[in-house]
């Protein structure tokens, strides 16, 4: 405190400004840029995966409708073409890829395997389309042509962020205060609770 009081105000302002600028640069480099790159990769992969799964599912459905004959062979050939074209097979999970490959090359269709594969693809598509629906609902709620509705939506969203941030900061402050003023057992309990909390939060974020 004595050093700060006796320091040149201009130097202190310069140091504080430099520190804020460094922290901003650090956050942008370590958080914002990786998130942006991850988002771009996710969007590209996500859209392509939905497209490939839909193509494969359509052919599998036609194979189910035509279990024998020339139509059956034609749709199996189309499946083979999908798996061999433009690296599309890389967008399929290992289980789905193995099943589709087996269906595409096996002259006699395994009906049980076919229906199970269609079911697996339906489950994956449901999860991905639900994600798209969430994004649409978010955009529809917080974006509008009306300036008033747009302002209200942005205000509500900002308030949610402020409330969430305030709650988290208050909780962390309470935990820190408890840790500093508690005895050994309380400190150990706080550490274990923190580790467990981080583990559960990490699992929740991965969903």
Contiguous uncertain segments of 5+ residues: none
CA-based shape: elongated
Number of helical elements: 7
Biggest sheet, in brief? Answer: none
Mean pLDDT, to the nearest integer, reads 80
Helix/strand order? HHHHHHH
Distance between the termini: 47 Å
β-strand number: 0
Query: Helix fraction?
Result: over 70%
What structural class is derived from the secondary structure elements? mainly alpha
Radius of gyration over C-alpha positions, nearest whole angstrom: 28 Å
| Proportion of residues in β-strands | under 5%
Characterise this structure.
There is one protein chain. The protein has 207 residues and is an all-alpha fold. 86% of the residues lie in helices and 0% in strands. The chain is built from seven helices and no strands. The model has no long low-confidence stretch (mean pLDDT 80).
In short:
This protein is mostly helical and 207 residues long. It has helices at residues 2-6, 9-65, 69-84, 94-105, 111-142, 147-181, 184-205.
């Amino acid at each position: 405190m004595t050093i700060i009081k006796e320091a040149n105000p201009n130097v202190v302002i310069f140091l504080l400004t430099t520190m804020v600028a460094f922290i901003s640069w650090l956050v942008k480099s370590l958080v914002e840029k990786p998130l942006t790159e991850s988002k771009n990769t996710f969007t590209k992969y996500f859209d392509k995966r939905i497209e490939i799964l839909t193509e494969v599912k359509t052919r599998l459905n036609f194979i189910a409708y035509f279990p024998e004959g020339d139509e059956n062979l034609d749709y199996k050939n189309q499946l083979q073409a999908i798996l061999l074209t433009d690296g599309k097979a890389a967008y399929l999970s290992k289980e789905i890829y193995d099943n589709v490959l087996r269906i595409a090359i096996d002259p006699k269709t395994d009906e049980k395997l076919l229906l199970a594969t269609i079911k697996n693809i339906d489950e994956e598509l449901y999860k991905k389309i639900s994600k798209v629906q969430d994004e649409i609902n978010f955009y529809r709620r917080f974006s509008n042509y009306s300036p008033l509705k747009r302002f209200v939506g942005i205000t509500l969203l900002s308030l949610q962020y402020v409330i969430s941030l305030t709650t988290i900061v208050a909780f962390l402050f309470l935990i820190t205060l408890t840790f500093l003023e508690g005895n050994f057992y309380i400190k150990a309990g706080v550490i274990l609770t923190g580790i467990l909390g981080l583990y559960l939060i990490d699992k929740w974020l991965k969903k």
